[in-house]
């Protein structure tokens, strides 16, 4: 019994990590109907950048604070110089460009860092845990990760619903042509959005690197978990993305509990199942 | 110097030519109406002026500046606002948010702000937090016009603001235009309702298949000449 | 002079229309193609084993490229999951031959059919997604298949398995080829695999060409331009796309079966490799020219050249491929054939439908009524 409760708790916390993976993806798609196939690799890139700084003696939190603005700029520049040129009806160009980017990132990281497994160390927090009673304990890092995921979603909702920029985002997402009539330059909006996504990827990268070993090749799998979380949750809702992440996390931990080899497969099956039964996700936005 | 001047303006949708050399002027403070049948190019003309459709740089001049090839967001910053055909309100935004977005461009201050717009359209003040698309057609049109005014434009382009509305609502909408004009905004109105257009405009142009077929002061135009220009017979 | 019916006032005949697709270049192309195929068939008599293996690679990649091109370039279904059917075909072949004792050549055909059957429920699932999300959805399906098959212990589980000699030695025609070309068993296998690949490639080109010239092909072109407009003309977009999806699954499955028959060794990671069966294929199609039949042919040749010269550099080669994909999308989205055909307005595969009106028809037929005796 304890085993099952523990499994569920772990699944929910894992869901927080997956929600963090998925939030950036959700924002980008919501605002510009674009999917960055290099999303997972961007997270891995951030993890490596934080690793480099932490190896040089800077603690992980400070390193992340230094890497985050750099990643924002990277995302902004990528969108401005490259992806903005492919805006339009055709889905292939941005897909293929981000796909090419994914391959380049993975192999560049491979060249720079080799395929060795790495880990981000956060000192005592690495293994610290909180006892919840009844024999259940949760790792502090996964708990912090879950809380950070919630904080990010709250912050994004504040941005979107309480600021002028957020209004501009929502207007652009609704009707990009009319948004231009308001004086909103969609190219700038898209660049900022991509910058924000890269920023969130940095946070996700830190928890990705602190939680388990990472190497240059694990990006694509993370993209898939993020994508599954977004679809299960329903397009257009950030809290839905959190719910989706939790569903994937739960499916994976329950699957692993039954048979460790079934962990990833269980996540995929849950995704396919939701797609069959509820194609629009669990909490789709009313207006489409 | 006219506020708005177009010189031989042409416009294309891909390979399809929609405008064949439109030359039009609008003086500051004027209300100019464009009439014409469906497909005559009226909406295309407004979209070209506001920058949604590309043109030759010097084909459109606003306050002496060549704006023909500029992007819409840029042109709006210079003081032109469009109330688009079909209103095009943002469905995810409330009435008030739609108005606020209209004021996104921070231009030199002017008479129009949130409170002023609510004075112009009191019905909107009561429903300021409702999703914009939940309002009636007439009220949505008020939001669209108010949204256009929020940027304090020097020139307001209105594309078929009477479309789909009951006559009494149209009357109320048009009743606010003199007030707008009095605040110093020039108006360029596209209208299918000829009577309305003639009653409110200082000058009228008639478009037919992408060309200007008639222009002048309403009092100088005869019913027959308008008929001929409108239908191209 | 009697007053009678004024012949010159007879009503003009009703206008006639015809649709023509052949061009002079395409007629020449047909003759050239027949010659090329004949040459390729007898090639094993003269070529060394290396060339046969290389051509096998080129031909199988060509089938995959044409399939993906049909899916993405014509039906607008951007799939990043074609490896699902390649891997499935490979595993089906291994299962049919090892576990059910089928003849390998027959098993290749059956594997294609199995892939097609699996494509049916898969389509219903992934068609619920659009655009980029459809792409990732197909990827998830492929990953699911990979993970499921990695659980099948009889086929080697996660590490995979090899084809036993009893299977590799049982291919029909093996002895005949061995005697004919005086080669050893494994080389003879390569020759037979090569001929099968050639057959598959010709079948693929032929069936895709036939599809595009049919009414369904016209529907595809309409859907590609505007699904909404096409549907309002009575085109059933879902059914058309579904047909294409299953058709390409069969082609990919057969190819996968053939590839792994030739390799004689399979593993889940290799069979469902995104890089080998999707990434490379997409680069091929895009280099050559997406949405044309000539494009993938050009693309596969260029890709072969790229791979021959650069593959040894490992990660740098992959980075080059990624860079090529990006550069293409930014500067030459229509690929090499797109540039050529726009510049010179040519088509080798006669697909452009030209509407001929009465004037032209009559002139061609020499029955123009304006000719005076």
Question: How would you portray this structure in words?
Answer:
The complex is a heterotrimer of chains A (288), B (233) and C (373). Chain A has eleven helices and two strands; from the N terminus they run H-H-H-H-E-E-H-H-H-H-H-H-H. Chain A has 288 residues and is mainly alpha-helical. Chain A has a two-stranded antiparallel ribbon with strand order 1-2. The mean pLDDT of chain A is 92. Chain B is built from ten helices and ten strands. Chain B has helices spanning 42-50, 72-77, 95-102, 114-120, 122-126, 137-149, 167-175, 177-182, 194-200, 223-231, and strands at residues 4-13, 16-26, 31-35, 60-62, 65-66, 80-83, 155-159, 186-191, 203-208, 211-216. In chain B, a hairpin with a 2-residue loop joins strand 4 and strand 5 (65-66). Chain B starts with a strand and ends with a helix. Helices cover 34% and strands 25% of the residues of chain B. Chain B has a single domain (4-89, 154-231), classed as 3-Layer(aba) Sandwich (Rossmann fold). In chain B, helix 3 runs parallel beside helix 6. The radius of gyration of chain B is 17 Å and the shape is globular. Chain C has helices at 24-42, 49-74, 83-99, 104-126, 131-149, 165-168, 174-181, 185-213, 215-225, 227-232, 237-263, 268-271, 274-288, 294-310, 315-331, 335-344, 358-365; strands at residues 17-20, 161-162, 265-266, 354-357. The longest helix of chain C is centred in the middle third of the chain and has 29 residues, at 185-213. The two termini of chain C are 23 Å apart. Chains in contact: A-B, A-C. The A-C interface holds A 29, 33-35, 37, 82, 85-86, 90-97, 99-104, 106-108, 110-111, 220, 223-224, 227-228, 231, 261, 264-265, 268-269, 271-272, 275-276, 279 and C 72, 78, 80, 124-125, 128-129, 131-133, 135-137, 139-141, 143-144, 147-148, 150-151, 274-275, 279, 282, 286, 290, 315-316, 318-319, 321-326, 328-330, 333.
What tags apply to this protein structure?
heterotrimer, A: 288 residues, mainly alpha, two-stranded antiparallel sheet, B: 233 residues, alpha/beta, Rossmann fold, six-stranded mixed sheet, 10 helices, 10 strands, 34% helix, 25% strand, globular
Summarize the structure.
The complex is a heterotrimer of chains A (about 290), B (about 230) and C (about 375). With about 230 residues, chain B is an alpha/beta fold.
């Amino acid at each position: 019994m304890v085993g099952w409760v523990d499994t569920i708790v772990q699944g929910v916390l894992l869901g927080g990590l997956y929600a963090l993976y998925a939030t950036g993806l959700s924002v980008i798609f919501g605002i510009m109907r674009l999917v960055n196939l290099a999303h997972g690799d961007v997270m891995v890139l951030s993890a490596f950048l934080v690793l480099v700084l932490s190896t040089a003696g800077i603690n992980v939190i400070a390193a992340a604070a230094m890497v985050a603005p750099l990643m924002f700029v990277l995302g902004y520049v990528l969108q401005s110089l490259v992806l903005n040129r492919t805006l339009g009806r055709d889905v292939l160009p941005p897909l293929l460009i981000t796909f090419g980017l994914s391959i380049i990132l993975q192999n560049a990281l491979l060249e720079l860092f080799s395929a060795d497994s790495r880990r981000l160390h956060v000192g005592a927090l690495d293994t610290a845990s909180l006892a919840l009673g009844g024999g259940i304990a949760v790792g502090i890092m996964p708990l912090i990760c879950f809380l950070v995921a919630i904080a990010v979603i709250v912050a994004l909702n504040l941005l979107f619903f309480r600021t002028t920029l957020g209004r501009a985002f929502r207007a652009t997402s609704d009707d990009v042509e009319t948004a231009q009539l308001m004086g909103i330059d969609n190219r700038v909006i898209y660049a900022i959005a991509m910058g924000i996504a890269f920023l969130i990827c940095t946070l996700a990268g830190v928890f990705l690197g602190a939680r388990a070993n990472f190497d240059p090749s694990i990006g694509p799998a993370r993209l898939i978990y993020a994508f599954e979380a977004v679809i299960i949750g329903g397009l257009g809702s950030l809290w839905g993305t959190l719910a989706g992440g939790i569903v994937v996390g739960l499916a994976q931990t329950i699957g692993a509990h039954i048979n460790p080899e079934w962990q990833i497969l269980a996540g995929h099956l849950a995704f396919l199942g939701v797609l069959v039964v509820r194609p629009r996700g669990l909490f789709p936005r009313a207006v489409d | 110097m006219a506020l708005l001047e177009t010189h031989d303006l042409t416009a294309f949708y891909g390979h399809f030519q929609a405008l064949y050399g439109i030359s039009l002027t609008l003086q500051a403070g004027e209300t100019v109406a464009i009439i014409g049948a469906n497909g005559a190019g009226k909406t295309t003309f407004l979209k070209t002026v506001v920058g949604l459709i590309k043109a030759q740089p010097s084909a459109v001049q606003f306050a002496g500046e060549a704006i023909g090839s500029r992007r819409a967001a840029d042109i709006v910053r210079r003081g032109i606002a469009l109330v688009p055909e079909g209103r095009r309100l943002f469905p995810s935004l409330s009435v008030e948010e739609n108005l606020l977005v209209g004021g996104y461009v921070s231009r030199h201050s002017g008479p129009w702000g949130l409170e002023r717009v609510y004075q112009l359209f009191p019905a909107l003040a009561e429903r300021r937090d409702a999703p914009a698309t939940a309002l009636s057609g007439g009220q949505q049109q008020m939001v669209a016009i108010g949204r256009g005014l929020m940027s304090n434009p020097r020139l307001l382009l209105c594309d078929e603001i009477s479309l789909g509305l009951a006559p009494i609502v149209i009357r109320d909408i048009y009743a606010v235009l003199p007030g707008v004009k009095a605040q110093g905004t020039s108006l360029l109105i596209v209208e299918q309702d000829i009577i309305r257009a003639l009653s409110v405009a200082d000058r009228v142009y008639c478009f037919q298949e992408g060309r200007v077929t008639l222009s002048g002061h309403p009092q100088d135009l005869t019913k027959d000449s308008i008929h001929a220009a409108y239908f191209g017979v | 002079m009697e007053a009678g019916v004024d012949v010159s006032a007879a009503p003009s005949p009703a206008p006639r229309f015809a649709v023509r697709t052949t061009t002079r270049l395409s007629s020449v192309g047909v003759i050239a193609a027949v010659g090329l195929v004949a040459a390729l068939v007898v090639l094993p008599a003269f070529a060394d084993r290396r060339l046969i293996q290389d051509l096998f690679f080129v031909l199988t990649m060509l089938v995959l490229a044409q399939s993906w091109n049909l899916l993405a370039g014509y039906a607008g279904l951007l799939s990043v999951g074609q490896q699902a059917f390649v891997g499935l075909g490979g595993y089906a072949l291994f299962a049919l031959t090892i576990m059910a004792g089928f003849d390998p050549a027959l098993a290749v055909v059956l594997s294609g059919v199995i892939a097609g059957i699996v494509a049916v429920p898969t389509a219903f699932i992934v068609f619920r997604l659009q655009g980029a999300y459809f792409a990732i959805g197909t990827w998830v399906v492929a990953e699911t298949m990979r993970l499921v098959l990695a659980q099948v212990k009889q086929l080697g589980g996660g590490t995979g398995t090899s084809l036993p000699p009893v299977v590799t030695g049982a291919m029909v025609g093996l002895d005949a080829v061995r005697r004919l070309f005086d080669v050893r068993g494994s080389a003879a296998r390569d020759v037979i695999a090569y001929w099968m690949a050639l057959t598959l490639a010709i079948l693929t080109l032929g069936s895709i060409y036939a599809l595009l010239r049919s009414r369904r092909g016209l529907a595809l072109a309409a859907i590609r331009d505007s699904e909404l407009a096409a549907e309002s003309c009575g085109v059933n977009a879902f059914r058309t796309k579904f047909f294409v999806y299953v058709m390409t699954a069969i082609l990919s499955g057969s190819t996968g079966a053939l590839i792994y028959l030739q390799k004689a060794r399979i593993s889940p990671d290799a069979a469902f490799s995104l890089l080998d069966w999707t990434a490379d294929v997409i680069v091929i199609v895009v280099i050559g020219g997406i949405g044309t039949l000539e494009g993938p042919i050009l693309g596969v040749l260029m890709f072969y050249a790229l791979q021959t010269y650069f593959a040894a550099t490992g990660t740098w080669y992959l980075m080059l491929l990624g860079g090529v994909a990006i550069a293409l999308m930014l500067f030459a989205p229509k690929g090499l054939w797109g540039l050529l055909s726009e510049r010179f307005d040519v088509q080798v595969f006669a697909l452009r439908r030209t509407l001929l009106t009465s004037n032209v028809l009559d002139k061609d037929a020499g029955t123009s009524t304006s000719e005076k005796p």
